[in-house]
Design a protein that fits this description.
It is built from 14 helices and no strands. It is mainly alpha-helical.
């Protein structure tokens, strides 16, 4: 494996799809086809892609010994020896500096959010990822920061409903990943907490119950958003409620991948290769754009 390819794999470009949350304010503020707004949102998203890559590189260096014991993580470039730890840290610093500097050129508030995202992830990597439930809440906070960054980038207020849906959904997805890890450890005979310290603080029945509550809360909050007076006035329609079934199907499919059909890959990675989930996502996004615009 070439050094460039090893670095690219370490930055995890397949995970950058999470940064599309930065674009959410652009879509729901009805500026998707306004070029100046779209360019600023795209640059903010690029900044978060660079930050995400920097965080992944730093985290892989931090976890290199534990990753060598993991059935799949041991094949990552750093634990496999394809990319040097010092090289990874240098590139992490370059990417983080470029991302925050570029964000500052767009809006000082965006730069502050980017800085906060970086500090939060460093705290997560160094200490807090070992604490059950706190680790998932920090992941959810990262998605909230993405949405807020997107709002600052185009200078529009972030909808409280959008933030609420994002926080609930992100917590749901984070718990799904922990549920999958617990289920896979039980299925494969591995030790609970052997490769993730916080996992020992989770219990399958508690995680499943919490996920079901969050699934219902997320769907209910989304339905309330579609019928909120401000939403109806802004978009001039109550028809957004017809996009709710797609949200229910997506959440239900993730529950299946996380709880009832655990595979070696995490459910967040599996859903990005799942034809049903992807088709549902495309249909949901298409219907939203059609109704809003």
């Amino acid at each position: 494996m070439s050094p460039a390819l090893a670095l690219l794999r370490t930055l995890r470009p397949q995970q950058w799809v999470k940064n599309l949350f930065v674009v959410a304010p652009l879509v729901f503020a009805k500026h998707l086809f306004d070029r100046p707004y779209a360019i600023r949102a795209a640059l903010a998203t690029l900044a978060f892609c660079a930050l995400s890559g920097a965080v992944y590189a730093f985290n892989d260096v931090r976890d290199v010994e534990g990753d060598r014991l993991h059935p799949t993580k041991k094949h990552r470039p750093i634990p496999a020896g394809a990319l040097g730890e010092r090289t990874a840290l240098v590139w992490a610093a370059i990417l983080a500096t470029a991302a925050i500097g570029g964000a500052a050129l767009l809006d000082w508030r965006l730069a502050l959010v980017c800085g906060g995202y970086l500090v939060q992830n460093l705290a997560y990597s160094l200490w807090l990822k070992r604490v059950a439930f706190i680790d998932v809440l920090l992941i959810a906070a990262g998605f909230l920061l993405r949405v807020q960054a997107g709002a600052y980038a185009i200078d529009v207020p972030a909808s409280p409903y959008l933030l609420a849906c994002t926080g609930l959904l992100a917590t749901f997805l984070g718990l799904g990943k922990r549920a999958h890890e617990l289920a896979w450890a039980a299925k494969s005979g591995g030790a609970i907490g052997g490769t993730r310290a916080a996992l020992a603080g989770y219990r399958v029945p508690v995680v499943r119950a919490a996920m079901l509550v969050l699934a219902v809360a997320t769907c209910a909050t989304y339905v309330l958003y579609t019928q909120d007076h401000h939403t109806v006035v802004s978009f001039g329609t109550r028809q957004l409620v017809w996009t709710a079934p797609f949200a229910v199907v997506g959440i239900g499919r993730f529950l299946m991948l996380a709880l009832w059909r655990p595979r070696q890959d995490s459910p967040t990675e599996a859903m990005l290769r799942d034809p049903l989930f992807l088709a549902n996502l495309v249909a949901w996004a298409t219907l939203i754009v059609a109704l809003v615009y």
